[in-house]
Write a structure and sequence with these properties.
alpha+beta, two-stranded antiparallel ribbon, elongated, 278 residues, six-stranded antiparallel β-sheet
């Protein structure tokens, strides 16, 4: 009899706990989406919940220091406990390990060489590489460095960097020419980076090495800052300009999935979480 009662309580509690968790996440996403502190009324309107419901959840989050209340205005902001937890998570998060599964799928989908790269001291550093089962492949290696201004991965990262950081890279490394197609003036490069942002990915159109094309997209952290890039590269006779959009779709999907693992949540994603919590 006692055992039956315990099972009954468990069945009633589980759906409620999931709902509270969904609503709590929606509230945190609402607070994260605004630079200013929010009132209870503001939060309630954003997550489409009653003010009394939001108040109960926020009080619990405040006790755990996940949310903080301003002593004068009574408005709420994200608490430092999230920073503490985030620091622990980041310390245990290896982008190369996490990126490997996405790189494997990218190479499987495109049947071209895949790379995972980061920006280090204004240069592109290759963290990982996977090759397809093809007879003609590219000569690249893990640990190799390349210039940023003429590589797909470099431009994919720079396109979403603040302009002052792009200027610092240009001052430090210059814009040396490698092929007739290399962009060698700041104006040319910045114009190309603007196009990269508009379409969501970068192209190295034989700018670093003649006969080689690359399609790359950025990997974002939870602040929307480009911390890495995923790419596919191949001889230009295989990656024709007509084939670039199709490959870009796979690259962008892989980079977006990895970005979400780092906590990147575009505005539409946050709104979706809020609606799901209703």
């Amino acid at each position: 009899m006692v055992e039956t009662k315990k099972k009954s309580v468990s069945k009633r509690d589980d759906p409620y706990r999931v709902q509270v968790l969904d609503r709590s996440l929606a509230i945190l996403n609402a607070l994260a989406s605004k630079h200013d502190d929010l009132s209870l009324a503001d939060i309630a309107a954003m997550v489409h919940l009653h003010k009394s419901t939001v108040h109960r959840i926020v009080m619990t989050l405040e006790r755990e220091r996940i949310v903080e209340k301003h002593p004068e205005t009574g408005h709420y902001r994200l608490g430092l406990r999230l920073f503490e937890l985030g620091s622990i998570a980041v310390a245990r998060f290896d982008i190369r390990d996490r990126g490997r599964i996405h790189l494997e799928k990218l190479v499987y989908d495109t049947e071209e060489t895949g790379h995972l790269c980061v920006m280090d001291q204004g240069e592109v550093l290759y963290l990982d590489k996977l090759e397809p089962a093809r007879s003609v492949r590219l000569s690249s290696s893990i640990g190799r460095r390349n210039p940023a201004h003429c590589t797909g991965v470099g431009k994919a990262i720079m396109a979403w960097m603040p302009e002052r950081e792009v200027d610092a890279i240009i001052r430090k490394h210059g814009l040396p020419r490698f092929t007739p197609k290399t962009l060698v003036t700041p104006a040319e490069l910045k114009s190309d980076l603007k196009i990269c942002r508009q379409r969501g990915y970068a192209i190295d159109d034989e700018e670093h090495e003649e006969g080689v094309r690359c399609v790359a997209a950025p990997v974002m952290d939870h602040f929307g800052y480009p911390i890495a890039a995923l790419s596919v590269s191949a001889p230009s006779f295989r990656i024709t300009l007509a084939k670039v959009p199709m490959l870009a779709e796979f690259v962008c999907k892989a980079s977006a999935t990895l970005s979400r693992e780092f906590g990147y949540a575009p505005r539409e994603m946050s709104l979706g979480l809020a609606k799901a919590a209703r």
